[in-house]
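Dear Dr. K.,

Following up on our conversation at the group meeting, I've run the structure prediction for ABC transporter substrate-binding protein from Streptomyces rhizosphaericus. I'm pasting the input sequence below exactly as I used it, so you can double-check it against your construct before we proceed with anything downstream. Let me know if the numbering doesn't match what you have in your notebook.
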Amino acid sequence: MNRTSRPHTGNRRATAAARALGAALSLTALLATSACAGDSQAASETDPSKVTLTLGDQAKNLKTLFDASGALEGTPYKVKWAEFEGAAPLFQAVQAGAADTSYAADLPTLQALSGGVRVKAVGALRNDGTHTGIVVRKNSPVKSVKDLKGKQVVVSSAKGSIAEYLLAHALKQAGLSYSDVHVRYLLPTDAQAAFTSGKVEVWATFGVYKTVAEQHGGRLLINGANGRVSGYGFIGAAEKALQVPAKKKAITDYLRRLDKALAWSRRHPAEYAKAIQHNNGASATVAKALVDQSNSALLPVREPVIRSVQKVGDTMHDIGVLTPNPTLADHVDTSLVKE
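The predicted structure tokens came back this morning:
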């Protein structure tokens, strides 16, 4: 969007302020309840039945999977969900002690580590990359990545997202530099509204937002398949949580149950799609697409995973997006997920 098409600046600022205040209040509430839980857990830190595990999630992705599969039923520990629109606020919660685990793609995890978030990658997830894409309006003259030169590209959700890596990598493959486009960061819901209304021409996004964009006036320019993105994501665990024996046991059990839930989703794609429709308000078409693009299994964070993701970090560091560039191998705990 250019600056001349902003007739309601005051209202937008008020809305942004309200959203920021709401996010702050939500995080404050999480902090308060987490602090209370921490007091009661200190005396029985070796007994998982005495702890509450706060699971970080984005857009109800994991919660929907667990609700549909029933894989979290009967846990010896209490479970609480911390839901966020994107990875950045999720990692803020982890850093603040308001979430015990994280769930994010490779680059957002690297970005969090670069920013000093004390989190360990404890399990890897992988998909085929098609969940990430660059979408343009159907009437856009942009027909190839080379046509993006000089264009504004909206990236969701924040600096260092997996969608931004796709954009950077695609530009490099097309012989363009990152400075050949003008990047603007918007949270997915804001970007979706702007894209649907025609105020955004090019949008680099992911997941349900990409799928919905294609359903509402969007044309897929390119996706993350064929190695354009690594396809890896991570379940992370707050270092503070891992230092509590009972919580580490609970997180290990949670990961085992996540693997079972993913196996269930592979065996029951139709049921999983219906759950996405019900829990996330998605249409049948969008739900099916999300199932087709979903993660396949939980993997140990071994050398091939680390090497692939480190290349992502190196690329983003080279264009000035990821500074400093963390060494992923220094932020891994391989003791929770085995082969």
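Two things stood out to me. Confidence is low (pLDDT under 50) at residues 1-41. Residues 132-223 form a domain with the D-Maltodextrin-Binding Protein; domain 2 fold (CATH 3.40.190.10).

Best regards,
J.T.
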